[in-house]
Amino acid sequence: MGLIERIGFWRRVGAALNTGVGTRLMTMSRAVVNLSTRALPAPRIDGMPPFTALAKPLPECRVAVVNTAGLYLDGDAPFNVDDPRGDASFRQIPSSVSAKDLRIAHAHYPHGWWEQDREVILPLDRLRELEAAGVFGLAPRFFSFGFGGLLTREYIDPARGTAQAVARCLADDGVDLALLVPA
After folding, report:
1. Sign of dihedral through CA atoms 129, 121, 98, 143?
2. Can you give the pLDDT at residue 144?
3. Is the dihedral of CA 77, 80, 81, 86 positive or negative?
4. How far apart are CA 103 and CA 74, in angstroms?
């Protein structure tokens, strides 16, 4: 077990981010990043960007949510925030879940916005309103990843990658559209 794991480094970072000082620091750092990226050249796009038309009308489509917020159901195992490499696993969340039954195990962003409005990470109420209006149907389950910036191979490995596993679950659920919500 390395030093970062022994001292619970990411838990300490997460605790600091969830203070008023941490929130202000995140806001200031975001402003600095925005300023520094303005000078970057825009990517060149030759021709049309890739696009796949829906195979059926939107009201007949099933929609799922995939996010990177580290959400898990109360009572399920949380993501491992103590591993310095991250945790490439995912959690299945029933689309019928109540937001009050969800927890966050992610130490790289402040959770205050989630506490104020849970729709910012998992827009359950808005999706259910759209489903009730007949705009589309909801898939039976959604998916949440934790964090794992150093785990690219674990995500994308064609045979065992967790992104591949989620793609298979989405296909099994007959999902036509996935709403990707980064945290």
Report:
1. positive
2. 94
3. negative
4. 6
